[in-house]
Amino acid sequence: MGKIKVLPDAVANQIAAGEVVERPASVVKELLENSLDAGSTDIRVEIEAGGRRLIRITDNGSGMMRDDAMLAFERHATSKLSSVHDLESIGTLGFRGEALPSIGSVSRLTLETHSRDESSGTRVEISGGKMIKCEDAGLAAGTILTIRDLFFNVPARKKFLRSEQTELAHIASLVTHYSLAHPDKSFELHHGPSELLRVTPVSTALERVFQVFGNRILEDLVEFGPETKSLSTPEGEQKKFSLSGFVSKPHIQKLNRNSIYLFVNGRLIRDKLLLHALTSAYHNLIPPACYPFALLFLDCDFGEVDVNVHPSKTEVRFRHSSFVHDFVRDAVRGKLMESKPVSSLPLPSYQTQPASSLPFSEFTQRIENTAPDYSEMVVPFPDGPPPEPRTLPNFRLDLPAGPPQRFDFNDVPQATMPPARMRIPDTHGPLPPGVASATEMESMGSLGDLRPIGQIHNSFIIAAGRDGLWIIDQHVAHERILFEQVLRQFARREAQQQRLLMPMVMELSVGQHLEYARIAEELARAGFETEPFGNRTIAIQAAPTGLGPGDIEKAIHEILDIAETELRKSSVEDLRRNIAASVACRAAIKINTPLDQQKMDYLLLELAKCEYPMACPHGRPIALRYSTRDILKGFHRI
Ligand code: ADP
Ligand code: MG
């Protein structure tokens, strides 16, 4: 007798549940996706005890006929696929037919459903995978799924659940973000007696963002899209990609990726390729270990993306991955370049703000403190580099180290979670007048009109402008100017060079020497004329103009070190940007340097010409503005 046997369905379902149903939020995700697939326009989620005691989702979708309601709990029973060909272009969120049997095998589940095609509705009860009841029921059209006592028969899994608040925070984050992806539908989320989210249908994503996060967030975001680009395949077909959404201005700098939400054809995913494209768009705009807030919707032909990669359907694979990567990077970067947002000075600290008008950065920080890593729930990214120390208190968003703070949902009345209801009294209304203007960029376009008045500390230029008082960091401003100049020279192969009277001999470490061999050509293109000179030594004959003798060696060391640590896998453009950043940083005017009027005028004029005058290549802000409005407020005139 052989040893192998086919597992009974009940066991197979529990194994599948291990992958599909990790925690209460994964149940909510599967059920939400089912409701959306069923064409629902009104989805209500009720939770008790963080989802352990109860999860109930009520929708007004197609409902199921009686036979389907019973079949839905069979393994791999789905209405969304019929042949293997369908797998090549999946247009629904679900397709594996695994969710209902998996959830049913680890909970007490009741399905109540009524299809408009049948006179009566159906109620099915399942407990730990066994069907207990199936009967007629008078029900409105649509479906109600009630899940009680999740993991009651899987104690091991139950033990791993985090606190009620943590689980709830995951659920809230999930519902919120699905609501952002579907502004034309209503969503509600209730935890026991408290209503955490209620949004009614609106016609634009902008209005939905307003409903969910309030007005202040819009000031920190750049909205864009849809940007489109077509790819011609070798078969002569045109594949259209479109990207729309919101990305934060560079002064929003987060120390983790939790605020990045990526949707591909309406599906919330975690994807390394898209994440990389997004962070590349911010390369040289925010510090390397920081991340933006992003809500991005990428839409493409279903055949262009394989969603059948992971049981929780949170990973995808693109057929033309480098095209998609570059499209997303360029679209986001282009938009950031275009908007040129300026950092405002913080308001004087004595002005306490009501919780309902917290600036987005604080608001999201609070969310992050309480709503732990959503990515954990799906596919965690490997940990990034450790956060940098806090350097610019007003522009860095630092999260407390260690595990997220505990909080009691019912005790914290406002702004601890994304829920609309808590933050905005009227979440039903249209976008009020004035909101649109708040989203208009505070632009650095007016830099050209600034009148430099003098320096503070021989380091910061004070300038009067039409719209307030400006303070410009002379070093980083010059750094940005030189950085863009060097990049342009790279592109045109016309680096400005200075010959050294005596070649400079420089010793390299083993790693640096290997990097040198790899990038020598790019160094030459930047203006460093070098040649190998014996064992791990190079001779430098010429260097980019502007670099002092002491800086040349330092710049080369730095470039080789950066190339060694982070650039092996990245593109030539990234390498060039890093070389340009090193050269610019070394050649720029230092702080503590007195400047005469002419030099200040020159700096501001050149800065105004920059493509991206808001941040230095390391991501630090260049200019702060104290707007006329802030000044009036400060003097209590408004
Ligand atoms: P999948 O979504 O991958 O098809 P599920 O196990 O999640 O698998 O659901 C099985 C089937 O049950 C679906 O294909 C669909 O036909 C039906 N179904 C599930 N939820 C709903 C719902 N809320 N409304 C209508 N039909 C549903
Ligand atoms: Mg499903």
3D architecture notes:
- It is a single chain.
- With 638 residues, the protein is of the alpha+beta class.
- The protein has four domains: 9-199, Heat Shock Protein 90 (2-Layer Sandwich), CATH 3.30.565.10; 220-339, Ribosomal Protein S5, domain 2, CATH 3.30.230.10; 355-424 and 436-478 and 591-634, formyl-coa transferase, domain 3, CATH 3.30.1540; 495-587, Ribosomal Protein S8, Chain: A, domain 1 (2-Layer Sandwich).
- It is built from 20 helices and 23 strands.
- Strand 17 and strand 18 form a beta hairpin.
- Helix 6 (164-181) runs antiparallel to helix 7, helix 15 packs across helix 19 and helix 16 (510-526) packs across helix 17 (549-566).
- The termini are far apart.
- Bound molecules: adenosine-5'-diphosphate and magnesium ion.
* Average pLDDT over all residues: 80
Broad CATH class of the largest domain: Alpha Beta
Q: What is the alpha-carbon Rg in Å? A: 28 Å
Overall structural class, as computed from helix and strand content, comes to: alpha+beta
What is the helix fraction of residues, given as a range? 25-40%
CATH topology of the largest domain: Heat Shock Protein 90
Tags for this entry?
638 residues, alpha+beta, Heat Shock Protein 90, Ribosomal Protein S5, domain 2, formyl-coa transferase, domain 3, 4 domains, five-stranded mixed sheet, 20 helices, binds adenosine-5'-diphosphate, binds magnesium ion
